[in-house]
Design brief:
7 helices, F0_ATP_A_sf, single chain
């Protein structure tokens, strides 16, 4: 797993450096794809969630996060690697904690420590008795649930997709070599395996989008002037 992650990081860095060094006013195919993805993250996630001014501050982090997660996820459908870098808890946990540290740091920086805790745990307009229940719940959400849910969501989706592909590929192989009438239904199993393979590519991109979007939302919630 560590080797897969190192390979993905190295490939992404090398490809990005090559594309950046050869960047042209009229982009080629590779540059166009990268710029399209960057514009998608910038316009769909960053500007819509954080706004134009605040979005500039967090754009490098969020764009880097999106590309890293996407590349790690797609490793699971690349022949020879066949294992997503996010299908073991270490990588999703590290990315989730990166988000956690970021929104807490900038939230405290903007509101002060006490002000940030009040901002996150005591939304205005709530009757005072409700705060007895609400404050512990909101505090738990800030310090545990947000980054924990980010970790589990990404990990579970990538593990589930990998297991489904292995099951149908293994089933196809078993049917082909069964030596019985079951060989006749092996094409169906093979078709399902190919379908799941394509679906896993979609899930890889979708999870990169969701993780980055939620990270931007949590940052916006921590640094907003009011709820």
């Amino acid at each position: 797993m560590q080797l897969v992650r190192l390979i993905i990081v190295a490939v992404v860095l090398i490809v990005m450096c090559i594309i950046a060094s050869r960047a042209r006013l009229v982009p080629g195919k590779a540059q166009s794809v990268v710029e399209l993805l960057m514009d998608f993250v910038d316009n769909t996630i960053i500007k819509n969630t954080l706004g134009l001014r605040e979005g500039r501050r967090y754009a490098p982090m969020l764009i880097t996060m999106f590309f890293l997660i996407l590349a790690m996820n797609l490793a699971g459908v690349i022949p020879g690697l066949n294992l997503a870098g996010t299908s073991v808890i270490g990588m999703p946990l590290m990315l989730a904690l990166w988000t956690f540290v970021t929104y807490v740091y900038f939230g405290v920086k903007k509101h002060g420590f006490g002000g940030y805790l009040k901002h996150e745990t005591m939304p205005p307009g709530v009757p005072w008795p409700i705060y007895i229940l609400l404050v512990p719940i909101e505090f738990l959400q800030v310090v545990l649930i947000r980054w924990g849910s980010l970790t589990i969501r990404l990990l579970a989706n990538m593990v589930a997709g990998h297991i489904m592909m292995l099951v149908f590929i293994g089933m196809t192989q078993a049917l082909l070599f069964s030596g019985s009438w079951l060989i006749a239904i092996s094409p169906l199993s093979g078709a399902l395996a190919i379908g799941i393979y394509g679906f896993e590519i979609f899930v890889a991109a979708l999870q990169a989008f969701i993780f980055t979007m939620l990270s931007a939302v949590y940052i916006q919630m921590a640094t907003a002037d009011e709820h």
